Each structure stands twice: as structure tokens, then as C-alpha cells.
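name: query_chain
kind: protein
chains: 1
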Amino acid sequence: MLQIFKNWSHRYFSDPQLIILGLFLLFGFFLVYIFGNLLAPVFASIVIAYLLEGMVGKLQRFRVPRMASVIVVFLIFMAFMVALIIGLLPMLSRQIAQLYQELPSMIARGQKELMQLPEKYPEVISEPQIKEIINYIGTELTKMGQQVLFLSLASVRGFISILIYLILVPLMVFFFLKDKTLILNWVRGFLPEERRLATEVWMEVNLQVANYVRGKIWEILIVWGVSYVTFKVLGLNFTVLISLFVGLSVLVPYIGATVMYIPVMLIAYFQWGIDNHLAYVFIAYSVIQMLDGNLLVPLLLSEVVNLHPVAIIVAVLLFGGMWGVWGLFFAIPLATLFHSVVKVWFTHHTRHLRTDGNRSPAAS
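structure:
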């Protein structure tokens, strides 16, 4: 058994290029996993700068100087952030407050509807089961209320954290864009000279991840906008809040769109009851998801991330559980990184074996 493991390790891990690649990946993983919370503003700045670099590169292809391109892109980014803070946040806060005020009446109506189920379907569900469900829901809502109270008591700390993000992140984004070459050269100074395999993996992953993230951002904005217009035309309450979460649901493939049926239909039910409007909302939301899955995703992400659905779901569950929202957003890019590493690893290994096979007869 020991000899089998020794032969296997010698077969796949004897090449120094593979060892260097593996060390790079382990170091990056543990850096994010251990210091992720402390360095969250830095990681957020790197991600934003990475996304904005595409716009800077396009301006440079039109022979715009690097510094001028960085300033233009950074000003566009800041204008977008200011518009988001001034225009969107007040509407969201008003709708959240309105939802909080109407929540008790919604809960009371839901309890009333649940208590009528044993009378309508006595062979399916009993009154003790309904009471148990209601008690469970009440317990969970109490926990949520306690968490909201805790957050309100810690609002000063949260305000300071938000203030730090609003000041530090844009500042670091600007310097990451402006001094990109200097920073990359400084990082390369700590890397070994023999890193050809790691460079090969980075080039393949960089193309995939950049196209995926930019396409996914466009998908969020389009689904958000279409959902807002659709729900506004239908007269659904909490349009801004619901459409925002519908747009963000595309971060979690397959799961997010399905889960969002529940709040959308509950809001429509509490607003209109069993009515034609409820059917209209269901049909409209279903059409949005069908167009997103069959038209928008193939159009924006047609040549990006060829992964099996099971692999995507596993990546979402794994990285989402480890890193929360950021893990959900980068679950597919991280799965793509793993897939690219495995592919390059075995391609390089096969090439290495062929080279050794061609050398051995000549040597003999």
C-alpha cells in the first residue's frame, strides 16, 4: 500500500512546476480563508479594480494614455456609486420600513389561513401540526427580531465600518489601477523564476473569470431592471426591494431563481389574495426567468465556464458556506479555477511523460 502511494506521488508530484503551482494555490487559499475578514476592504478593492481594468484597457486601445484612462474610469465608478447611494438607498430604506410595518398583519393573515387548512384538508394535515408550524415560525421571527435589535444597538460600529469602506475602498481602487504595473512587478519579485505552469493557469483562468464576472454583472443589472419595470406595471408592492433581490438571485444559479418564487408570490398573495393579479405575477416572473436562462445567459456567457450543473451547485454550496456573499459571487470562477488547474495539471503531466518516454530510448 505504501509503495502504491509512493509511486502515485512520484508520478504526479515529482515535477517542480506542479509543486510551485500547488504552493501558489495553497497560499492564496489560506490567505483568504484566515485573513478574509481583516482584509475584506483590500480584497473588495482588488476585485473592483480587476473589473474596472477592462474599461481602462479598452480606452488604452484607443490610444488614450494610461493615467487619463484610469482617471476617466475612476470618475465614472465614483459617479455610479454616488448615484447608487443617493438614489437607491433611500427608496430601499423606505420600502424596508414599510415592509416592517406591514409584517405583523401579514403574519396574522398567514396564521389565519394556516388554521383553515385542517378544516379543508383534514386527511392531509391536522390542527396540532399547524400549531407546531406556527410556533416554529414565531420562534424564528423572534430570533430575527433579536438580531435586528442587536444590529441596531451595534449601528455605531456598523456606521464606522461603512465609513471605512466608503473612504478606503475607492482610494485603494484608484491606486490599484494607477500603479498596476508597479504592484505586479513588486509581487513578481517574491515569486520563483520557474513559474511557467502557474502563468499558463493564470492566463486561462483570467480570461474565463473576467468574462464571467462582467457578464454576470450585466445579467444582474438587466434582470433587476426588467423585474422592476414588470412589477411596477403590475402594481406589486415593494417593487424596488423585490426586483433587487430578483436581480441578485442570478448569483446562485438554479437555486436563486427558484427560491425567489416564494417571497414574490407571498407579497403578491398578501396584496391581492387568490386573484388574477397573483397569476399575472407568477406568469411574469416565470417569463423573466425563462428569458434569463434561455436568452440572456447564452448571450452574455456563451463562451464562459463550461461546467456541469452538479459541479456548479457543489461550488455554490461550498464557497457560499465558507465566504458568504463573496463566496456565492465567486463560486463559479473558483470552480473554473479548480477545473483549469486540473486540466493544465494533467496536460502538463502527460506532456512530461511523453518527453521522458522520448528521451529514455535515446539515452539507452
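note: Residues 19-112+154-192 form one domain.
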